Backbone:
């Protein structure tokens, strides 16, 4: 390691200072809001009694019911407060509506009975001093009747139906506790928060029988969000127009490069090991897409799979859990592989033993994937019991479904990856300013295990609002913010490594994106909590700051054409085909497109409180999730995969047409899913929610009434699955027919992808 002076920052230190300031302010606000939720979340009463003082349920039973609801996978069947899966009902809204109807019937029906029921459900009879909640006779009677309904309809039914197999909850005592938990969530949705005119859930769900309607705060902050978005985009475009050479992918457009033929680039042992990682990425993605097709089939036909009782073998909640978990594993494995492959190119060297550590990490990843998927199946089947269920089976929170034991192992694996990267980068870091590209690469890698580890604060018996807060540190801050930042840095470094942009240009783009992401993304986490039992302040700040999340995505879209232009420019040097990364660049362009459309347009649509109030947990949410997650992270995974394969494959094994087919199949298949199925169906669901109530829009009857539209998704799913097959084939070839070893000893690996810079058209460096 060098003991000499560090190289100065390639850009002004102002960029680093501004980024740190925005992070500091954002997390300070987030910390304050976290303290507020600990004090002001919807209470879980010590006991719930009827008007005669008879105990109906207790806090212990409600929290045990929440744990059972999660560890049996019901959040991957239906939802609570709109959070979860989409096939089953939203149990909060469903219980609330059925309860109100039953109570109205008990009172004899008619307008007077309806008004009385409305007053009963809105009245907050929780006594904090006694830690006791009194339910009226009507509420108590409805609780007993609905206990039988949920047991017969979902939890303990003797035959498959609505996507669940028979005896989904084998323990009837667990089914009672689950119903108690659902009933508590419905109480929070109707009972007015002390000192306010709205419920603990800001009057969600929309339910006329209870008197729940859109609040003033939801309308006001929706309007202010639109103003913030338009103003922010206008300011960004004004700065972009005023300083065109300071912002964006500029500064290296006049460079002419002669690329080294991929077969002549030396590979380190650790880089060669990534062939196995990328094969795992492709194989897991294939399994993930097939399972995605199965979940879509349940929406088209929840009763059978072409005559086969699929729910008895693979119920919807298990299929969807695996589908979601494999998506995270695909992206994680791709990022692990990408980091290991790029680190020697960044550092110009590789220390001994990296390959052994890389294979050790791969083995750990395999254990976590297989163990967690098996544990989830055993948990949902009721094989694991007691404390073993959330530990080795499933915690059951959406995106944090895997058991805590597997979660610990995954975090340990991520830190091992960090050790691998640090060993490779250590010598380079010793000579660089702490604000330059190599450090940003390492910082962003460090954020991945750190922010995923925060999910350990989410426990299956945490009060729901608190548990959900820590869950969304993973869902939002890890997935939507810091993986976005790591994505930007990986894209920038890829362009630097192939000589398309300078370090200075890449650094400016990274800092600008980091500042813009942190301005909106950190506090914007609150947009997930509008209706989960949080104070209205969280809705206000979540709406306002989440609007700013679209601004960096707009910037990336403006720059998407430059992405394509820079790659095409290199192809023109000496004729088409000399630029080896055409399809990797095309995938990066796709990342920018889907980032803006999926995360930006579709995300902002559902983040407005007055829209989210009616559509949360509908197919519009799924539309945003598919377009953003698949369109950004899966496409980036494919960009990394095909970038590395150019060097991991023999020249005769590379097939440009096959890769092109994969690119167009994946993107057209995703577009088909979004524009033919998810978005139009989500719009219909939104309309049904406004017209007939949220409970109706989330009922299985709604999907059965629109089964034809679900069947129309089939070609898109088939096209997408077909697009994965070339990746499986080519990564398999990279393993079975590895490239011959190329000597690296004693040679610098720095900038090995291009050797000759041509100062301008018509001139060449000898």
Residues:
């Amino acid at each position: 390691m060098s003991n000499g002076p560090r190289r100065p920052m390639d850009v002004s230190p102002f960029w680093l200072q501004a980024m740190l300031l925005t992070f500091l302010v954002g997390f300070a606000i987030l910390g304050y809001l976290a303290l507020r939720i600990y004090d002001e979340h919807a209470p879980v009463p010590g006991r719930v009694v009827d008007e005669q003082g008879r105990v109906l349920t207790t806090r212990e039973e409600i929290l045990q019911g929440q744990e059972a609801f999660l560890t049996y996978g019901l959040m991957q069947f239906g939802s609570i407060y709109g959070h979860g899966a989409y096939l089953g009902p939203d149990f909060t809204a469903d219980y609330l509506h059925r309860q109100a109807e039953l109570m109205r019937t008990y009172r004899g029906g008619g307008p007077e009975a309806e008004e009385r029921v409305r007053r009963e459900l809105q009245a907050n009879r929780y006594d904090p001093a006694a830690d006791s909640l009194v339910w009226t006779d009507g509420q108590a009677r409805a609780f007993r009747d609905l206990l039988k309904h949920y047991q017969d309809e979902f939890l303990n039914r003797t035959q498959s139906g609505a996507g669940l197999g028979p005896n989904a909850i084998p323990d009837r005592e667990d089914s009672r506790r689950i119903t108690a938990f659902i009933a508590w969530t419905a109480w929070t949705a109707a009972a007015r928060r002390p000192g306010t005119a709205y419920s603990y859930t800001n009057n969600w769900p929309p339910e006329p029988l209870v008197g729940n309607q859109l609040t003033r705060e939801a309308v006001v902050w929706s309007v202010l969000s639109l103003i913030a978005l338009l103003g922010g985009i206008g300011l960004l475009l004004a700065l972009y127009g005023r300083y065109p050479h300071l912002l964006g992918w500029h500064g290296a457009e006049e460079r002419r490069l002669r690329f080294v033929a991929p077969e002549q680039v030396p590979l380190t042992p650790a880089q060669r090991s990534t062939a196995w990682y990328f094969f795992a990425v492709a194989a897991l993605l294939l399994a993930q897409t097939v399972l995605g097709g199965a979940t879509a089939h349940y929406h088209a036909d929840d009763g059978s799979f072409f005559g086969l009782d699929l729910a008895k073998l693979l119920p919807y909640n298990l299929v969807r859990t695996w589908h979601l978990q494999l998506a995270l594993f695909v992206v994680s494995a791709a990022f692990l592989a990408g980091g290991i492959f790029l680190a020697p190119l960044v550092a110009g060297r590789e220390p001994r033993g990296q390959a052994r550590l890389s294979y050790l990490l791969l083995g750990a990843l395999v254990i976590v994937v297989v163990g967690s998927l098996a544990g989830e199946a055993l948990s949902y089947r009721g094989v694991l019991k007691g404390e073993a269920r959330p530990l080795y089976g499933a915690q059951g929170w959406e995106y944090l479904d895997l058991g805590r034991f597997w979660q610990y192992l995954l975090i340990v694996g991520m830190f091992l990856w960090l050790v691998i990267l640090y060993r490779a980068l250590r010598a380079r870091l010793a000579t660089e300013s702490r604000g330059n590209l190599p450090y940003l690469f390492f910082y962003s890698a460090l954020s991945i295990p750190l922010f995923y580890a925060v999910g350990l604060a989410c426990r299956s018996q945490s009060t729901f609002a608190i548990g959900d807060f820590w869950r969304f540190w993973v869902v939002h801050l890890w997935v939507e913010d810091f993986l976005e930042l790591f994505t930007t840095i990986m894209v920038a470094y890829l362009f630097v490594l192939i000589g398309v942009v300078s370090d200075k240009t890449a650094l400016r783009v990274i800092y600008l994106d980091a500042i813009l992401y942190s301005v909106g993304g950190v506090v914007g986490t609150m947009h997930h909590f509008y209706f989960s039992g949080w104070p209205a302040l969280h809705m206000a700040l979540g709406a306002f700051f989440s609007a700013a999340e679209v601004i960096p995505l707009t910037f990336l879209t403006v720059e998407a054409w430059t992405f394509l232009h820079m790659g095409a420019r290199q192809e023109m040097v000496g004729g088409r085909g000399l630029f080896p990364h055409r399809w990797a660049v095309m995938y990066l362009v796709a990342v920018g497109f889907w980032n803006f459309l999926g995360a930006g347009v579709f995300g902002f649509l559902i983040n407005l409180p007055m829209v989210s109030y009616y559509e949360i947990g509908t197919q519009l949410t799924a539309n945003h999730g598919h377009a953003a997650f698949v369109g950004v992270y899966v496409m980036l995974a494919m960009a990394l995969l095909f970038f590395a394969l150019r060097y991991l494959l023999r020249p005769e094994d590379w097939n440009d047409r096959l890769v092109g087919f994969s690119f167009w199949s994946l993107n057209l298949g995703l577009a088909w899913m979004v524009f033919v199925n998810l978005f139009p169906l989500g719009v219909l669901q939104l309309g049904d929610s406004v017209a007939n109530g949220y409970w109706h829009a989330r009922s299985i009857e709604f999907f059965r009434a629109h089964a034809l539209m679900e069947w129309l998704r089939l070609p898109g799913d088939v096209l997408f699955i077909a697009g994965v097959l070339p990746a499986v084939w080519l990564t398999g070839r990279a393993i079975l027919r590895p490239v011959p070893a190329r000597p690296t000893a004693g040679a610098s690996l720095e900038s090995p992808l291009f050797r000759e810079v041509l100062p301008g058209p018509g001139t060449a460096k000898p």
The two ends are 33 Å apart (CA to CA). Residues 571-577, 745-749, 760-766 have pLDDT under 50 and may be disordered. The chain has two domains: 47-201, 220-254+283-758. DSSP finds 26 helices and ten strands in the chain.
